Amino acid sequence: xxxxxxxxxxxxxxxxxxxxxxxxxxxxxxxxxxTGIKSRHVISDENLEDLGAEAVRKALDMSGLDVKDIDLFIxxxxxxxxxxxxxxxxxxxxxxxxxxxxxxxxxxxGFIYALDMAETYYKAGKVKNVVIACIEEPSRMASxxxxxxxxxxxxxAGAVVLTEGDNIKGTRLHAEPDSEKIWMTRTLVxxxxxxxxxxxxxxxxxxREVFRFAVEACTxxxxxxxxxxxxTKEDVxxxxxxxxxxxxxxxxxxxxxxxxxxxxxxxxxxxNSSSASCPILLDECNRKGMFKKGDLLVFSAFGAGLLSGAxxxxx
Length: 315
Ligand code: UT7
What we know:
binds oxa(dethia)-CoA
């Protein structure tokens, strides 16, 4: 398969580090050097599904395809106001799309997991055109009283349109299931029979341990996938890394011994937008005209699960 369209949509509300100091014991002096984040876009009066629909529309416009041409719609989403139906159905209804569709919840590496699934459908000969959309609102997961988590996240949606081709050179998925490193719970409707204690807890994260996992999983995943696909680091033009923390990206740059110029970043203005991070970065770089035909892009993302994944894509 190959990518023939990209799109993204970002909430209007921009929250700078300084704006957080009004209600949180934090500062730009702490946040910027520790994370690389200066500001993030968060949902205020928008609906997440509208951002998702906008990102898909932009990607479809670029591809020249119509919703009726799409054979499969995969949405990566961790939380939304809906428990059911899935975000794919909610967005598809807005777009008038009626192909088979489903949601995945693979947290930050959701884009790579979705690419891997799409590739499997292509290999099975079941699809011609596929849309992947990553539609995320992590600002509604962290407590805005918890300075260790809420400062990190921003919301948004990123989408790609895929068609037949052989530009996805390989994907590699990895899991180290551990529900203590990053987790969040919410209660369901009570019943006369439930006797156990349940509570809604906003996102909890063991930041340092996740940091270590991220650096290790990314470098191992990228080096392993390059080896599997027969490429070397010299062949790579761009590393599209999940935008979780500039220091994570810097550590990866050091370990891979690659020039920082191969690592585009947008974390400064976006923060971590979970699985939407990679496709938003992709769309921004694409619309700036950064990629030439034949460029080799390596995607890598990591997060809750713990899950990680990498993908090698020829532009
Ligand atoms: O999408 C994938 C999922 N997430 C990640 O990839 C995140 C990975 N982890 C990280 O990016 C980093 O661990 C953090 C940015 C979350 C935290 O950075 P850190 O250097 O690991 O800091 P820390 O958690 O060890 O905290 C150091 C200190 C603590 O104070 P004490 O206990 O030393 O007095 C924190 O309370 O910094 C304090 N702190 C803050 N201070 C001001 C934590 N958050 C803040 C804050 N403002 N926002």
